[in-house]
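We treat protein structure as text, and this decision shapes the records that our systems exchange. We quote a single record here, exactly as it is kept in our systems:
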Amino acid sequence: MRRILAVILSVMLFVSCSPEESGRMALCSDGAAVVYLGHDRSTIMIRIGLSGLRQIEELSGLDGKDAVSALFSIPEENITAVSWDDYFQRRNLLMMLAKETHSSSPEAALWKNAKDLENTAFLDTINKLSSSFDESLLSAFHAGEGGYMEYRLESILPSASSWEDALDFIGRWVDAAMEIEI
């Protein structure tokens, strides 16, 4: 009986100490996208500009939203599509926040100041522009806590000759990035 109990406790301890993926989410428009990958209490953000979006659309034969979903293995329900105008207005507001908070980037400014922005008109406006994407993101990814790193797709995805090459490379890159302690 003691052996069985010891085995059960060992398994429970192993499972509770295992890294946990908090999820994958993306906000997409016709001209840009931003991907969030959560792991333990760390978050990796990948910004995709127009050239990166067009590259993966061309390689995959899919529209931007579907290409982002496939490339980063993001479930359809975790991708929010917004108009380019709303995406652009959201980005401008985040750039103003970054300037005011002396942050290195717009997304980092939102991330690091999430708790202070709760129940403000600023966050309400951001949520309206992103169809509540930011509200879901900030709660799902424990914003303001843990590590946070930003990348641009154009700087991590070399010119791939095929969609399969791109899927393979990004899959390996994401796995390696998740291993890094942020």
Remarks:
- The chain has a mean pLDDT of 82.
- The chain has ten helices and five strands.
